[in-house]
UniProtKB/TrEMBL annotation:
Official protein name in the record: SDR family oxidoreductase
Classification lineage: Bacteria, Bacillati, Actinomycetota, Actinomycetes, Mycobacteriales
Keywords assigned: Oxidoreductase
Pfam families hit by this protein: adh_short (PF00106)
InterPro entries listed in its UniProt record: NAD(P)-bd_dom_sf, SDR_fam
Family: Belongs to the short-chain dehydrogenases/reductases (SDR) family.
GO MF annotation list: oxidoreductase activity, acting on the CH-OH group of donors, NAD or NADP as acceptor
Membrane-spanning ranges: none
PANTHER family named in the record: ALCOHOL DEHYDROGENASE (PTHR42901)
């Protein structure tokens, strides 16, 4: 098979403006990747790209036009750097609200399905031909323990994460025989903007999620993704669940209050 393996290995990270995405972009840059940082917040990704010597692309993963432009930029980068797209980190996503099904906020549900599920679909579909052509591709999708657990008030988020995980794991079979590894990272509590977004900027409510325990940090997750990315091409870490020691499940945690 003809491959486009170039001199420079390129990694694309979505949701790179903060948290796990930002930390992962830094780890991958440290490993020598040219990192394309994609997110909606221009100022943040421009500063990050400057810091790590990467490329910032303002991208809303729910917008197919924006994702097509991201893919186009990646094509140009491959040419200008004589590089190949070897890594995609599907990290964009999140939760909104925590309400029972009976009171479901349809806008919240739509946002969660659009961002976590269709966003992953748009970006993966757009970059897959390049990842395959690189001869050594890797797709990491950051889901959540909500991809296999459920909890009261969480159906919008858990159903979206279940679907995102199903989409990702389906690729493992569809791409069998092609040179692309697939890893699902399923974190539990990570102290990022996650809860602040979920509770619409309510700092007190967001902080309460992590009170009395030691949550994971974005860097903890990024370090594991860096390990995944640095394995040889024949080693596929299919699924990795990472929780704080203090968290047994989405609904059971040990808190010292
Ligand atoms: C979020 C996981 O444990 O904070 O994706 O609900 S948890």
């Amino acid at each position: 098979m003809k491959t486009l393996q170039g001199d420079r290995r390129i990694a694309v990270v979505t949701g790179a403006s903060s948290g796990i995405g930002e930390a992962t972009a830094k780890v991958l840059a440290g490993q020598g990747f040219h990192v394309v940082v994609a997110a909606r917040r221009e100022e943040r990704i421009a500063a990050l790209a400057e810091e790590i010597g990467g490329t910032a692309v303002v991208t809303d993963v729910t917008d197919p036009g924006a994702v097509a432009a991201l893919a186009q930029t990646c094509e140009h980068l491959c040419d200008s750097l004589s590089g190949s797209i070897n890594v995609l980190i599907n990290n964009a996503g999140g939760a909104k609200g925590l309400t029972p099904v009976e009171q479901a906020d349809l806008e919240h549900w739509r946002w969660m399905w659009e961002t976590n599920v269709l966003g992953t679909l748009h970006v993966t579909r757009a970059l897959l031909p390049r990842l395959v052509a690189s001869g050594d591709g890797l797709v990491v999708t950051v889901t959540s323990i909500a991809a296999f657990e459920i909890y009261d008030g969480g159906a919008g988020y858990t159903s979206a994460k279940h679907a995102q995980s199903a989409l990702h794991r389906t690729l493992r079979g569809e791409l069998l025989g092609k040179p692309v590894r697939l890893t699902e990272i399923a974190p539990g509590m990570v102290d990022t903007e996650f809860s602040l977004v979920r509770f619409d900027g309510d700092r007190e409510r967001a902080d309460a999620v992590y009170s009395g325990l030691t949550p994971l940090t974005a860097a903890d997750i990024a370090e594991v993704i860096g390990f995944v990315a640095s394995r040889p091409p024949h080693v596929d870490l299919d699924q990795i669940v990472i929780r704080p020691r203090d968290q047994a499940s989405a609904t059971r945690a040990s808190r010292q209050i």
